[in-house]
Amino acid sequence: MLKRALSVRCLSGEAYANGMQLFTMTLGALMSLNFSTYLLLPILYPLKLTSVNEYIELRFKSKALCSVIFLLNIVKNLLTSGVCLYAPTVALVSITNLGNLTNIFLLGIVCTMYSSLGGIKAVVWTDVFQISVMMIGLISVLTIGVSLNGGIIETLYIASEGGRLEIFEVISYNVFGIFFGIYFLIFFAGLAAYANYAGCDPMALGIIKRKEEIIPYFVMDKLSFIPGLPGIFVATLVGGSL
């Protein structure tokens, strides 16, 4: 879930700055989901395994290899979790009075507590709640942002004029998608922000320093007149971080 908060900031900022090219990653997501569902699960599910380590030990008959992979996985999770914890705090700092370290500490404590105390059941139900909050927040921001532009057609026209609808241009990214619908909302939120700021780019004016800050800035600058909407957006970021 931490990566979803990263996506809300980074992918919407990417759509704002460079267009919809990264949206092609959802095609890879759909293929990988079908591959896993129809080819891998029928083989692995009957084995009644509880972890990848258990499968490796069963397949290669080596506890040493299992231990090495376990340690590598721990290192990988520590590194990626650190990055994913830090990323949403950059956005939270811009719309709250809390510092980076405070946000990192709070998010880390909450994640650790509900995972440790509630186990996998808590993780599953938390994911359900989080994705619901994220969908509500993204749909709210997108709906109001598009309406400020004069509608979907006008938003797409402005984005097209700025070259932001070029999906299949060659790009130097290698990333993987997870879920088509939520990524569509994230990317389109970036287009809505671009259409609002066409001709007065906050990055060019020096108001924000990174493209990842555009959606938090957009919410506070253009949408804060709606009571509760900034709070919903904060909940979207926090929900994706837990």
TrEMBL record:
GO terms for biological process: sodium ion transport. The chain crosses the membrane at residues 27-47, 68-92, 104-124, 136-159, 171-194, 214-238. The keyword Hydrolase does not apply. InterPro entries: Na/Glc_symporter_sf, Na/solute_symporter, Sodium:Solute_Symporter_SSF. It comes from the Eukaryota. It is found in: Cell membrane. Gene3D superfamilies: Sodium/glucose cotransporter. GO terms for cellular component: plasma membrane. Pfam families: SSF. Keywords: Cell membrane, Ion transport, Membrane, Sodium, Sodium transport, Transmembrane, Transmembrane helix, Transport. One of its GO terms (molecular function) is symporter activity. It is a multi-pass membrane protein. The keyword Membrane applies. Belongs to the sodium:solute symporter (SSF) (TC 2.A.21) family. This is Sodium-coupled monocarboxylate transporter 2.
